[in-house]
Every structure is written in C-alpha cells, then in structure tokens.
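User:
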Amino acid sequence: MIRLRAPKALDPLLTRTIRGLVNARPVYIVPRPDGELVLGATSREDGRSGTNAGGVHQLLRDAERLVPAVLDCEITYITTRARPGSPDDVPIIGRIDPGCVVSTGFFRHGILLAPLGAGLTADLATRADTAWVPPGSLAAVGPDRFDSEHPPAEPQDAQQHTVSIQQPAGSHP
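Assistant: Predicted structure:
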C-alpha cells in the first residue's frame, strides 16, 4: 500500500475511489479526507516481510494507467502487511480446543468478511447460538476441515445448498 500526496496545483486529484484492472491485476486509488491518496492491491506469497520494490513499481505503473497524474504525486508512506490466507482460500473460524477459538485466513477479503467473521467468532467464543448461519457454514469454515483423519461432520438434518454466482464479463472476483 502506498500513500501519496498530490501537488497543490492538482489538489484534489481525486474526489472518488477509482478501482480498475490493468493487465488483469486489480488496482485501487482511494482519496482520503486528509488529501492523501491510498494506492493498493498487490499481493505476493513469498514469506518475506519487507516491501518489494517490484510491487511498488507495479502499483505505480498500474495506477498511472488509470490516473496518469499519479506520477506527479509525492510518496508519503509505503507499507506491507500480512494478510493471512488458508490453503483453500476460505477463512478459518472455529473452536480448536475448549478454551480457544480461531478466526483467521481472510486474506484480502478481510474487510468484506469482517462483520460475518466477527459475529461468528464472538458467538463461538461466548457459546451463543449460531443458528443464524446457513446450514453447512460452520463445517465450511471450521479449522478441522483440513484434518483428513477427522473430517467435519455435517448434522444429519443439514440440507445441501449450492449457490451459483455469475460474475459480469471482465470483472474480478
């Protein structure tokens, strides 16, 4: 993620969030109330903790395709943060022993799934009723789904639900 500040002559450079795809890579530019712009959307899976120069270059190059004047901005901050994922790209939420509930693996969808993850995690931690989640959901996100010796058991009265989501042409999930 890169924070930028537009020169006074271009301020405000943007007044709305810009989201796009450049060579099939997502990129976003978000104007902040303090006048800065937030540029982001890179990801990598190499185990390194530092900011990758290639990622910075790619973000700036892709942002330039959407808003050419972004290259006239001053870089004020660059950061890299871990976004833990899971082997199947589905969050891991559930009790792993009587005193521990985990809620992780949201990867880049954490901001979108935060309300669901927080509600389910809080209910599991307090042993509240989780009947509000659709049938099969607890098994789908449960940490024991990776345990081949003890696959998650479905309740006998659970029904199979399949949802088909159609993505518009050219969109990115």
